[in-house]
Write a structure and sequence with these properties.
heterodimer; A: mainly alpha; ABC transporter involved in vitamin B12 uptake, BtuC; two-stranded antiparallel sheet; about 75% helix; B: alpha/beta; Rossmann fold; 6-stranded mixed beta sheet; 4-stranded antiparallel beta sheet; about 35% helix
């Protein structure tokens, strides 16, 4: 019974990981950009929501109405100012420039807000701790369930949007061959700017859940980035349903690991990630693709 | 009435000038064949007209407007369509998605999804197949269909018969016949001289980036074109021994 509970909690935790990995995975699949500033941008969104809640008494959910479009604008600006230019230099230059960007964001946040940890939990009432009891041993947190539902709706919605809409087709075609889309009247620059805006909108949502379920500080982005990365890679980089699967695998592994030993939480997660990575490199299509990408002229 | 005017167009690949001061005009509904040996600059010329290759000098005038500074997608929206060399389909999208994508050009007209399927019946059964999984003929049909879906006023076809079996080439040219009668201007790059001369009303032969000979296909003899093709006539004109 204790294991069943660990697995259920692990699956729910996986929903959270899928949510924070969503933007990272989307950006990699659509723009072939590995955004190392992903975690820092989520923290930035979390601070924006915190400020709105703290100063103006705006509930975090209402705050998203402002922060999601604001982060979308940040995404479009980021694409034009940083990503587009650095992507011209090959795969590795965006990695460097977004790494630099994450340092800038982290330290600006530190300068502004200091080292205090903060949380949005006080602003969402009993949602932060309330739960449904299934049996005497198993309870499902309302916030965790909401996180999972949001992850499914967001990932499924983006997948549907990519597959069924004209703009989704434009995004996929631009990802494949940005030169040729021009021939059919598609403005590749605008498509990429809008795709980056969508990615950052999802980052804003993940930042909200990050801040509601736990505490954060200016340097909390790196750990979020690692979990997002692991979920993406386990699920197959660039596949959105795969990201949900990868998040759940990571969450279950951590949850089971934690029941063995307190240190097991991190170790089990990292081990599963490494095993998935090596399996992919040696048996999957990810390895050849990665090698091909790395060979792109600088 | 003149649709497209090219004025002293120059385009380069690094230090190599691939197109040197080419000038010609295409009328509405006219079919022009562009012939020449490999490396004569035909593909670069078409890409420069479509906005895919930077123009180093000269102008491209379309429907009276200078489109030289405009991007490829802006030109596609004005009605210039290119079927690129090697087809350049979006392999991870289905045939139907490749075709629908061309609606982004925002040009309504006779070419709808259904019209393209009528024109290329071999695509009907493959609608939902990934473009990367098609045979050469089906890929070419999709590439032409995609260009048609932008409802262009001029369509630039770069080596549409490359890599296709003679039977399929015949079928593609049958479709070009229908296309011609619909009033769309065509610029055709074709290695098969005989086919080019019978399809087009006018032929332009390029040599080393410049126009060597130009004229109505009815007036040009096969010899004239072959000589221009290999640069023999120019050599003779300069009095050099052949």
């Amino acid at each position: 019974m204790i294991f069943l509970n660990q697995i259920i909690q692990g699956v729910l935790l996986g929903g959270y990981y899928a949510l924070i990995a969503c933007g990272l995975s989307f950006m990699f699949s659509v723009m072939r950009i590995i955004n190392l500033a992903h975690g820092s941008l989520a923290i930035l969104a979390a601070y924006a929501l915190f400020e709105l809640a703290d100063r103006f008494d705006v509930s975090p959910f209402l705050g998203l109405v402002v922060v999601v479009p604001a982060m979308a604008l940040v995404g479009a600006g980021l694409q034009r100012a940083v990503l587009e230019r650095s992507a011209r230099g090959g795969l590795l230059v965006p990695v460097l420039s977004t790494f630099g960007l994450s340092i800038v964001i982290d330290n600006l946040l530190f300068q502004q807000f200091g080292a205090d940890t903060r949380s949005l939990a006080p602003y969402i009432g009993d949602l932060s701790y309330d739960s449904w009891s299934l049996t005497d041993d198993i309870a499902i947190g309302k916030l965790a369930a909401l996180t999972m539902a949001t992850a499914i709706v967001l990932l499924g919605g983006i997948q549907l949007f990519l597959n069924r809409t004209q703009f989704g087709r434009m995004i996929r075609a631009t990802a494949e061959d940005a030169d040729t889309v021009g021939l059919v009247g598609v403005n590749a620059r605008r498509v990429n700017a809008l795709a980056a805006a969508i990615a950052m909108a999802t980052v804003a949502i993940s930042g909200a859940f990050l801040a509601m379920r736990a505490t954060f500080d200016p340097y909390a982005g790196a750990l979020q980035l690692i979990f997002a990365f692991e979920a993406s890679v386990i699920g197959g980089a660039g596949s959105l349903w795969g990201t949900l699967f990868g998040g759940i695998v990571l969450g279950v592994a951590q949850s089971l690991g934690a029941s063995v030993s307190p240190q097991g939480f991190f170790i089990a997660g990292h081990v599963v990630f490494l095993v998935a990575l090596f399996l992919r490199i040696y048996f999957g299509d990810f390895g050849p693709r990665l090698r091909r990408l790395a060979r792109r002229p600088a | 009435m003149t649709l497209l005017t090219i004025e002293r167009l120059e385009a380069r690949h690094g230090l190599l000038t691939a197109v040197r001061g080419v000038s010609f005009a295409v009328d509405k509904g006219e079919t022009v064949a562009l012939v020449g040996a490999n490396g004569a600059g035909k593909t670069t010329l078409l890409r420069a007209i479509a906005g895919q290759h930077p123009i180093a000098g000269g102008r491209v005038v379309f429907k009276g407007a200078d489109v030289t500074p405009r991007t490829a997608h802006a030109r596609a929206r004005m009605g210039i369509a290119l079927v690129p060399e090697g087809r350049r389909l979006f392999a991870s999208l289905t045939v139907e998605e490749n075709l629908l994508l061309a609606r982004s050009a925002g040009r309504a007209g006779p070419w709808t999804l259904e019209a393209v399927m009528e024109a290329f019946p071999n695509l009907k059964a493959r609608r939902r197949s990934l473009a990367g999984a098609l045979s050469g003929g089906e890929q070419q049909a999709t590439a032409i269909g995609r260009a048609l879906m932008t409802n262009p006023e001029i369509i630039l076809l770069d080596e549409v018969s490359l890599g296709l079996s003679p039977l399929v080439v015949g079928r593609v040219y049958e479709q070009l016949g229908t296309l011609k009668s619909s009033g769309v201007a065509i610029v055709l790059v074709e290695q098969d001289l005989k086919r080019a001369m019978t399809t087009a009303s006018r032929a332009i032969c390029m040599l080393e980036g410049a126009i060597a000979v130009e004229g109505a296909t009815a007036d040009l003899t096969h010899e004239q074109v072959t000589q221009a093709y290999f640069g023999l006539r120019r050599a003779a004109g300069h009095g050099a021994p052949a």
